[in-house]
């Protein structure tokens, strides 16, 4: 399901020969000078699917742009400082990736970030609604379970919402799941493909370990792996000892998803990724947004796949977390009201 940024970088020369940078789409990163944003911007500068990279943040963005501009891959890089310049950064963008906001610190949950990041995400959506209403929007800012509804509600208020084009990026959950499961099975990560459904915070993250081909996990292994996938971010926060959260792995995951979305937009077939989108999958349980595999195409989401078959423990996880996910979605919607 996941493509490799490294592999795509190896294809860079061939891709550029086939298509000039001027014909490739513009991608904007909002929050580009931050911990996630700088690494993400570096990876996008190396992508063969990005023609123009526009970087927006409160401060230091021109410096990041100048630094990236010295990399000898084709495609331009521009930096825009401050909220007043954001519209220029977003104008005509095909894809807007949004890691803006404050990071987690030790002891914080994603939900603790809500009061600060909710306002940031809403203000970005207000600018995007005018500057690039037809763009794809890939939202990283936590808590994603709430910020995606905030972004969607803001676009709705502006009359430009398209549910096929607003995504919560949950790809880090899949990269962690693939890494941890590969370690447990002593396999290469390229031979592991774990579907992760639900939301993007703690117990709302639902790795479908029963669907891992050839695995025969014990109940204890399932419990430990599920918990580690759900709370992998805490490992990084604790290991960094107050110096930050998961920035490098999140940047990688966001670049993977962005690259896949751009491939689908360019016409590549059978691009399937997990993403947190407006979905009917858990609507009867009060959740208008949910992550399952989705088929991507030129217009965004082309098909939303249902939940795969769940084991007894996975069904229990679903029943236990669905109320929390519904409440987190409602919190985002209510913020906009």
Automatic annotation (TrEMBL):
Gene Ontology biological process: malate metabolic process; tricarboxylic acid cycle
Superkingdom as given in the UniProt entry: Eukaryota
A molecular function (GO) term: L-malate dehydrogenase (NAD+) activity
GO CC, alphabetical: cytoplasm
Binding positions for NAD(+) per the UniProt entry: 31-37, 57, 117, 140-142, 250
Active site: residue positions: 200
InterPro entries from the UniProt entry: L-lactate/malate_DH, Lactate/malate_DH_C, Lactate/malate_DH_N, Lactate_DH/Glyco_Ohase_4_C, Malate_DH_AS, Malate_DH_type1, NAD(P)-bd_dom_sf
Pfam family for this entry, one: Ldh_1_C
Reaction(s) catalysed by this chain's protein: (S)-malate + NAD(+) = oxaloacetate + NADH + H(+)
UniProt keyword Kinase, yes or no: no
UniProt binding sites for substrate: 104, 110, 142, 176
Residue ranges of domain Lactate/malate dehydrogenase C-terminal in the record: 170-335
Gene3D superfamilies: Lactate dehydrogenase/glycoside hydrolase, family 4, C-terminal (3.90.110.10), NAD(P)-binding Rossmann-like Domain (3.40.50.720)
Any coiled-coil regions, as ranges: none
Domain Lactate/malate dehydrogenase N-terminal residue range list: 26-168
The entry's keywords: NAD, Oxidoreductase, Tricarboxylic acid cycle
The protein's Enzyme Commission number: 1.1.1.37
Quaternary structure and partners: Homodimer.
NCBIfam families: MDH_euk_gproteo (TIGR01772)
Family label: Belongs to the LDH/MDH superfamily. MDH type 1 family.
Name recorded for this polypeptide: Malate dehydrogenase
Organism of this sequence: Thraustochytrium sp. LLF1b
């Amino acid at each position: 399901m996941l493509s490799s940024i490294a592999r795509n970088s190896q294809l860079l020369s061939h891709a550029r020969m086939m298509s000039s940078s001027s014909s490739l789409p513009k991608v904007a990163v909002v929050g580009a000078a931050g911990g996630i944003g700088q690494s993400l911007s570096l990876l996008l500068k190396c992508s063969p699917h990005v023609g123009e990279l526009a970087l927006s943040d409160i401060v230091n963005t021109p410096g990041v742009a100048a630094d990236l501009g010295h990399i000898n891959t084709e495609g331009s890089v521009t930096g825009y400082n401050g909220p007043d310049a954001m519209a220029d950064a977003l104008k005509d963008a095909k894809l807007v990736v949004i890691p803006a906001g404050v990071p987690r610190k030790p002891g914080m949950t994603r939900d603790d970030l809500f009061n600060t990041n909710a306002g940031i995400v809403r203000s970005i959506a207000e600018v995007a609604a005018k500057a690039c209403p037809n763009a794809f929007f890939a939202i990283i800012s936590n808590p994603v379970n709430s910020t995606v509804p905030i972004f969607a509600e803001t676009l709705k208020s502006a009359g430009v919402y398209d549910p096929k084009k607003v995504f919560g990026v949950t790809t880090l959950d899949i990269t962690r799941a693939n890494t941890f499961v590969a370690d447990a099975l002593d396999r290469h990560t390229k031979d592991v493909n774990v579907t992760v459904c639900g939301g993007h915070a703690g117990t709302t993250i639902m790795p479908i370990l029963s669907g891992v081909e050839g695995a025969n996990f014990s109940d204890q292994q399932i419990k430990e792996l599920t918990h580690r996938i759900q709370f992998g971010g805490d490992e990084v926060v604790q290991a960094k000892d107050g110096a930050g959260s998961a920035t490098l792995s999140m940047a990688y995951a966001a670049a993977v998803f962005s690259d896949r979305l751009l491939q689908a937009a360019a016409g590549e077939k059978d691009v399937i990724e997990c993403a947190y989108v407006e979905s009917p999958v858990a609507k009867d349980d009060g959740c208008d947004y949910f992550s399952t595999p989705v088929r991507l195409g030129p217009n965004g989401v082309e098909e939303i796949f249902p939940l795969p078959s769940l084991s007894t423990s996975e069904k229990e996880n679903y029943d236990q977390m669905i109320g929390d996910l519904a409440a987190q979605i409602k919190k985002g919607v209510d913020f906009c009201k």
